[in-house]
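Weekly modeling sync, notes
Attendees: S.R. (lead), two postdocs, one rotation student

Agenda item 3: backlog of single-chain predictions. S.R. asked that every request posted to the team notebook include the full sequence so nobody has to chase files. The rotation student volunteered to paste the first one in as an example of the format we agreed on. Action items at the bottom.

Example entry:
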Amino acid sequence: MRYKGKVVVIGGSTGSGESTLTANVISRIPGSERLVTATTRAMREGEKNGEDYFFLTESEFQKALNANEILIHAYMSDRNVHYGTYRPHLEQALERATVLFANVDIVGTRYFKSNYGATTIFTEPSSLAEVEERLKRRNPSMSSQELELRIKYAKREIETEGPEYDYHVVNANGKLNEAVDTVIEILKKEGYIGA
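Predicted structure, as returned to the notebook:
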């Protein structure tokens, strides 16, 4: 595997804060970066195209899929949104990054583990109440039905997908630095960064 020891997956349940955790870990590892995923979901306030996601229309996403520019993808039927690993960005990032962090779902996790020998870390909240609080804070206009659905989804992810990961890190409210330190220790143990 050409890029073994280069890719780390930080996945997690809905509302687990894996993006925030990843950003904080990256800030402590010179030359590391996050894999930017393609999506058809609408851009949220404060997000930037090419930095948070590659925001594509349905037809652009389909065109990229047909051109083999989306390596793996998932369709979230409850939200009518596609997500996918954007090959042009992946190839460039693998060449330049010291460590490449991927925030992907379980399909992506399996892909990076089998194709790139990735170490996989599952981020989880300290409780489902914490998930609810984070989702409300992130999207105050979310309907109670959608909120309930997302919490159910988070519970299912923790129970069924969590066991497939190499490591588990609890990312509790107010304890982000502790979670970052835990990830840094894992990366040292796995040889991604020096001790």
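Discussion: group reviewed the output briefly. The two ends are 24 Å apart (CA to CA).
Action items: rotation student to repeat for the remaining queue; S.R. to check formatting next week.
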